[in-house]
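During the no-cost extension, the postdoctoral fellow (Dr. R.K.) reprocessed legacy sequence entries with the updated structure-token encoder. One reprocessed record is reproduced below for audit purposes.
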Amino acid sequence: MQTLEPQIKDSLREVIKAMQAGEAEKAELMCRHFLVTNAASVPHLQLLGHALIKQDKFNEAQEQIEFALKIAPDYARLYEDLGNLQGLQCEYEAAIASFRRAVQLDPRLSTAHRKLAQTLIAAGRGDEVDDAFEGFLDHDRDAALVAAGAEHWRSGRYEEAETNLQSALRKNPENVDAMRFLALVYRDQDKKLLDAEALLRRAVSIAPDFHQALGNLGRILVDNSKLGEAIDVYERLVGLKPDDDDAWAGYGRALAQAGRVAEAEAVYRRSLEIQPQSPGVHMARAHMLKTLGDQEEALRAYRKSIEYNPALGESYWSMANLKVFQFTDDEVSAMEQQSASDDLKEESQIHFLFALGKAYEDRQEYQKAWQHYHQGNQLKRSNVIYDPVENEQHLQKIRDAFSEEMFRANEGAGHQAPDPIFIVGLPRTGSTLVEQILASHSQVEGTAELPNLGNIANGTGKYRPDGLAYPDTLATLTRRDFASFGREYLQQVARHRVLGTPFFIDKMPNNFIHVGWIKLILPNAKIINTRRHPMDSLLGVYKQLFAKGQDFTYDTLELAEFYRCYIEMMVHWHAVLPGQVLDVHYEDTVTSLEAQVRRILEFCGLEFEESCLRYYETRRAVKTASSEQVRQPIYTSALGLWKKYGDSLALWQEELQDIIEDLPASVRKAAG
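Re-encoded structure tokens follow.
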């Protein structure tokens, strides 16, 4: 290389400044202008190539790099640039030759060693990779450890990846690449998620424009339920990378998790403008459209996702999950064909089985429907961790802790706000219908199934030196503590309250476990327990593939046992908190709507409003599986559906006969 004259140095400084500012077109013009009078300036030819690459003008960039090589045929970095260009255009063999030439001319060029190894992998020449990495290792040990760790991570060798990346961080505690890949190792194993978050926070504090780490941090923050911060991170990321469809998709996911559904739908649309052929984003947008009540557009989006990925079972299940939708014959045939494929991932197979169960139920082929539902549940059960004995013991501990004496001793304690209305019970018992009725009242806002209450209860055992866990922690808490926890709950959920109404609904069904906790920390809150005939209730749950949680639902016997545990828990609450929980039976609601609406409103201290009878006219985002059903007027076709399945449900009848006999006569008549 020639020695650079001051004039060339000054010009290069300005070009580099423009490149760093993201002004590739300006940098291109500056290089071309300088080359008019200094045609042999290799640095300008090289930077011109870089500026053209930034604009995706690969052919023009390659012309400039190849021209520069004619002037400086022994300049190793030009061969590295040429290899980059060839790799970008998937010309792997040519790229391998260019990188080999680069490291031959300058063996110290560690980046070229690394790129050679990566290109050999891309070209399917894995047997030559080790030698390339050895060359990398010889000249950049720290970077080599990261590269090796990254390759172990990509191949699923997490233990080796962790060892390499931790070694890299010991050598250089500010190695942001090592931080990022180690965080990904933790995330993929679903372990040390707070450590993963800390590593990524540290990486972006050292390198604020490290967009890959920002994207990973956003995802981890969503996983750790730090949604406000996640949204801030993604806003930064799309500012840095406005044409990155993955960044916009991540932003949409964060907004969706935060309940900002309309914004999420718009952001997903932006991602699809950049990359229209992304099946996952089409499906995610469809979820938002479904929540917003635009079923027609949601179906178009689901079908578009299937067009780009016919094996995307989740989209088929999501259409089935609209409940009021029926598959075409062609769609049923396509699902059967996909389900029979040997290459289908197990998760997709589960989705197809549940969707086919719904398809055959709609055709009134109930035995065939049961076979698909049952097979899907069995497959799903093998993928979840649930211990029924442990669950039963935990519920007993809660009953022991929340005794009559406990409530007498803490009478008048807790935060006195009357704002929350909790709807509890098992899934598929009409809870969304009750929520929609209440949310149609001018004084009430429907929010979502909020996890905050249980998280706060379980959090009473966090960071305790004595190791106590909830509910054993209750004995150590004071009346002032209960008031503080009530205030904390209201502060946490405040972001979900956007209408400014005096009351709001928290429809987390599993809060039936926490009725006592609710009454300790928010004694003026209202609690409604939705019930349904056990046979229809269990069938509805068994037909439902849940996005997460509810792991007790995938085995027929475990489901029956859990139902009994639920009944025992509600019997306990009625005993220790008489009159504090209102049971609402689905059968009574759909057969005597006005009477039940008046009963519900009276319990909540609300004046009767006609709009509650026309709940299906209320336009609001509904996130649950019943979102389309509660947008319809009352119907009774689902009552007693369990009888269509005949002997398939004999186990449940036998296990729950005593509970069925104790039901109100109106419920037995409607569904039995």
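The beta strands are 420-425, 444-448, 503-506, 526-531, 581-585. The radius of gyration is 31 Å. The remaining legacy entries will be reprocessed before the final report is submitted.
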